[in-house]
Structures are given as structure tokens and as C-alpha cells.
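Box 4.2: Ligand-aware structure prediction
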Amino acid sequence: MKPLNFAIIGGGNIGRVHMDAISHIPDARVSVVCDVSQERGCALAAACDACWVASYEETVARPDVDVVSICTPSGTHAEVAVAAARAGKHVIVEKPIDVTLSRVDQIIAAATEAGVKLACIFPLRFMEGVHYTREAVMAGRLGRLTLVDAYIKWYRPQSYYTGSWRGTWALDGGGALMNQGIHSIDLLQWFGGPISTIYGRTATLAHEMETEDTAAAVLTFDNGAMGVIEATTASWPGDEARVELHGDRGTIVLEQGRIVRWKLVDAPPGEEERMLSLEGYLGSGAQDPMGISYELHRRQLQDMVDAIREDRAPAVNGAEGRKAVEIIRAIYRSAKTGQTAHLPLVES
Ligand SMILES: NC(=O)c1ccc[n+]([C@@H]2O[C@H](COP(=O)([O-])OP(=O)(O)OC[C@H]3O[C@@H](n4cnc5c(N)ncnc54)[C@H](O)[C@@H]3O)[C@@H](O)[C@H]2O)c1
């Protein structure tokens, strides 16, 4: 079968992770690296024997591109994704899929109209521990869900923000929530959602930046459970992100997608030990944004390749990618107004 040709649009930090991931997928290759920076674009293109193109418009028009991986700053995703979909290319977009709901909806509409596949990158969804946790929750094994929490207490130095698109409203769309917390917020909603109300507070406590470096929110879920989200990039040295699920028949706690506590009333002998010894540490961005492995991206990009081959939806499609953005936007709305935000969130 002819390999699928990928264009990586945005050859910065995460563009390199996409390149490594694609190089480990048998029937995929990178044909184009697109970056407005010749230096970064050419360096990455040389590393995967691809060609460098400066403009995304030219990239998406090329016949030797089947799929685009969009790895540009978050607030540029919609313009690139819409152009790619209209050019008939399948679209993979880094998290967050974009930074406002209207921009996300433009992407989803363009992909639907063009009949192309659309995936949003959430690598933790591809951890074994996450898979088994979701299965246990869906089977009702935790009983009545009571508390569903996400704690993202990470660290970024000031140099991470200074002179960068990071920490700006236009291009990052937020701070500790929209950039870092979003991975765990996606898991929280996937396990316990939908969410019905959110009361949130945000602050910029330890960095010079436009957006929040610290946030806290109280949640209620449609199923009656409650929960909290705490996120910061100002907790040195930075701990693994935790998602905690509690019900009247069980507790599951994950750190960076790995199960660290599995206590279920109905657990058969040996299950707890098995769950605590699933796959090993696959890295984390708790202290260093590049402290992640390409392996989870490989799994998600492999899922996209399979989705294209099998003509099915990818595991994390546009609608799934939208949910965490909606929750974060609701926290920002609540923090701004001082009122509880209700979901679904309406944005003009
Ligand atoms: N999944 C993860 O774990 C993870 C980790 C880091 C970043 N990200 C996401 O990936 C995206 C990029 O982050 P990054 O850290 O790699 O940023 P980066 O600044 O390192 O790289 C972005 C690259 O995009 C290029 N670029 C900007 N505008 C462009 C345009 N219009 N056309 C072509 N190229 C353009 C820049 O020159 C730069 O090389 C963000 O959305 C971020 O949230 C995801």
C-alpha cells in the first residue's frame, strides 16, 4: 500500500515529536516540513529527508501531501486547519484544537464539509492506564461517582514566556489551563463528563505574562458528581499531573496517565497489582515541555493512519477535542464575571 504522506506544519518543539512519531509508523512518511522560519523548517526537513516549504497555503495545495500535522502556535490552528481541509487533506491538530469555540467550530465545519478526517492530539488518551480507567468507569465499577479531580502543578521558568507566543491570549489562548492543564482536563471530562457548572478563579502570581499561571475551579457533573481543577505553572519543581476518581465502590488515581491507585470493591484477585504495573513511565511535561516521549504521539498518529485506511473516525475527533476547550473557556468566563458558568457554553 502507498505510504501516507504527512506535512508537518510548524517545525518547532512538538513538530520534532511528530517527525519522530511518524518515522516509527510503517506506512507513513514526512514529505514536507512547513515553517515560516527557514532555519527551523530546513533543520527538521533535513532530519526526515523531506522538503521545506515556507507557506502553509502552498503546503496544503501540494499533491504529495495526504495528511497535515498542525504544530503551529495554538491561536493559528484554525486558519491552517480550515485551509488544509478545504484542500482535501486529512487534519491532525495539536492541543488545544484552537483557543475559542468559534474557531474550533470553524475547523470542525470545514472538515465535515470536505469529508476529511480530523483529529486533536491528546496523547494521554493512548496510555494503557487511561484505557482501563475509562473501561472501569463506563462499566459503573466505581459505583456512584462522587469526586472527579484534576491537579496540574507544573513549573515553567520566566524564560519560557518572555518574548514568546506562550502566555499570550491571542496565540496561547490562556496559560496554565489552556496550554498545560488541558491534557488532564480532557481526561477528567472523558472519565466523568459532561460537566454542567463551573465556578473558577484565575491569577497571574509568579510570572510576567498576559494570561493565568494559576487557576482553581469547582465543578458539578451532569451525573451529580463534584470535582475540582487546580492548575499552575508556578509550582517548583513541578509534580506529575494527577487525575483522581472517587465513587462509593472505588477509587482510581492516575499520575500522568499511569495508575498509581486502583481500589475497587469488586476487583478480582490480582487486578490491582496488574493495574499498578502496566506500562512504564513515558515522560511528562511537569518540569520541561520537552520531557515527553514520542511514543504516545506515535500511537495517536497510528490511530489516524488506521482511521484513514479504514474510513472511520479517529479516536479523538474534532468534537472530542472541543470539550476541554469549552471547559477552560467556562473557567475563564467564570473568573471574569465572578458568576458560575453553565455548560454548554455559548460564545459569540
Ligand atoms: N501534545 C503535547 O504534549 C504538546 C507539547 C508542546 C506543544 N504542544 C502544542 O503544539 C503547538 C506548538 O507548540 P511548540 O511548543 O512546538 O511551539 P514552537 O514555538 O516551538 O513551534 C512552533 C513553530 O511554528 C512555526 N510557525 C508559526 N506560525 C506559522 C505559520 N503560520 N506557518 C508555518 N509555521 C509557523 C514557528 O516558526 C515555530 O517553528 C501548540 O499548539 C502547543 O500547545 C503540544
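In the box above, the bound molecule is nicotinamide-adenine-dinucleotide. The pocket of nicotinamide-adenine-dinucleotide is lined by residues 9-15, 34-37, 40, 56, 71-74, 76, 94-95, 121, 123, 179, 289, 292 (CB under 6 Å).
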